[in-house]
Structures are given as structure tokens and as C-alpha cells.
């Protein structure tokens, strides 16, 4: 492992956490997915130099861990803490990720979007990833990413301007 690769590993961590949180919308679950992914990334550190796009590869690992998490959740009787007791999310975890106001507005506007459009919109507009990187992370073509993003933007535009 080279110092540059280690620096990449450190720099991508906030983005990985934000992506995990955007998928599950729950601090505890996002932290679990994030930490499991960091362990897997670290275990593969000898292969980092083979990865052509470190960030896209690690984001895809977050997505895959999320999908595994969802499968486990569906296969078992899953009761999250929020189902038992309503606990407000701590602000210190969310500070620096997205302001509460912006996150609230984003949730309001995107709640009716299909999940794939929400994810692409988040990765493009919030994380500022390129179309190619998003396509790699979500296992789509560039054209599919552009189409989903276009549809999501059209939907948001109609909501902002009050049209149905």
C-alpha cells in the first residue's frame, strides 16, 4: 500500500458514509453498513493498486453491502430501534453531511421518486459524481443514468413550479 492510496482511503470515507446514509436514511444502519464496508476495503488493501477508480469501487461496495443488508432485513423479523422507541437523530452525526433544512427539503421533494432516481440524483447533485462513476456504482449504462437523472429532474421541476 502506497501513501497515496492510504490518503484516498481516508478522503473517500465521508462520501461513503453519506452514500450509506442516503440509502438507509437511518444513522445506526448507515454506520453499520459504512463500518462493514471499511473493514472489507481494508482487508483488500493489497489489491487497491489494481482498482482503476478507487472511489467508484468503494461506493459500489457500499451499495452491495446495502443490498445485502436489505436482504437480511427482509429474511428475518427485523425490528429497528426506531420501531420500538422514537429517538431523535443526533445532530453531531449529521453536521457536515447535509444541513437539516436542505435534507428535509430534499426528502420532501424526492419522497415519491423511484429509489433508483433518488440514488442517482443524490450521487450526481450532492456527491457530484460523474455519470460514468454513477453507472459503475449502480451497475447501469451511462445512458440509463442520464435518462433516470433527466426524469428525476423533470419531476422535481414540476413540483417546484407547482405542476402535476
TrEMBL record:
Report which superkingdom the organism of origin falls in: Bacteria
Entries under SUPFAM superfamilies matching the protein: Sigma2 domain of RNA polymerase sigma factors, Sigma3 and sigma4 domains of RNA polymerase sigma factors
Q: Does the keyword Transcription regulation apply?
A: yes
Domain RNA polymerase sigma factor 70 region 4 type, chain residue ranges per copy: 109-155
Q: Which stretches make up the RNA polymerase sigma-70 region domain?
A: 11-74
**Which family, according to UniProt?**
Belongs to the sigma-70 factor family. ECF subfamily.
Gene3D superfamilies reported in the protein's UniProt record: 1.10.1740.10, Winged helix-like DNA-binding domain superfamily/Winged helix DNA-binding domain
Identify the keywords attached in UniProt to this record, alphabetized: DNA-binding, Sigma factor, Transcription, Transcription regulation
Cleavable signal peptide: none
The protein's name: RNA polymerase sigma factor
InterPro entries xrefs:
RNA_pol_sigma-70-like, RNA_pol_sigma-70_dom, RNA_pol_sigma70_r2, RNA_pol_sigma70_r4_t2, RNA_pol_sigma_r2, RNA_pol_sigma_r3/r4-like, WH-like_DNA-bd_sf
**Transcription regulation: is it a keyword of this entry?**
yes
Amino acid at each position: 500500500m502506497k501513501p497515496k492510496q492510504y490518503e484516498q482511503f481516508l478522503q473517500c470515507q465521508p462520501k461513503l458514509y453519506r452514500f450509506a446514509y442516503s440509502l438507509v436514511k437511518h444513522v445506526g444502519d448507515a454506520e453499520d453498513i459504512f463500518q462493514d464496508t471499511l473493514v472489507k476495503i481494508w482487508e483488500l488493501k493489497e489489491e487497491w493498486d489494481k482498482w482503476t477508480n478507487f472511489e467508484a469501487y468503494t461506493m459500489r461496495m457500499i451499495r452491495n453491502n446495502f443490498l445485502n443488508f436489505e436482504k437480511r432485513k427482509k429474511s428475518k423479523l427485523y425490528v429497528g430501534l426506531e420501531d420500538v422507541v422514537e429517538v431523535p437523530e443526533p445532530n453531531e452525526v449529521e453536521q457536515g453531511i447535509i444541513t437539516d433544512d436542505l435534507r428535509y427539503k430534499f426528502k420532501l421533494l424526492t419522497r415519491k421518486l423511484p429509489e433508483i432516481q433518488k440514488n442517482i440524483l443524490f450521487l450526481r447533485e450532492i456527491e457530484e459524481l460523474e455519470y460514468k462513476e454513477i453507472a459503475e456504482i449502480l451497475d447501469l449504462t451511462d445512458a440509463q443514468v442520464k435518462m433516470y437523472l433527466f426524469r428525476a429532474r423533470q419531476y422535481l421541476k414540476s413540483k417546484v413550479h407547482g405542476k402535476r
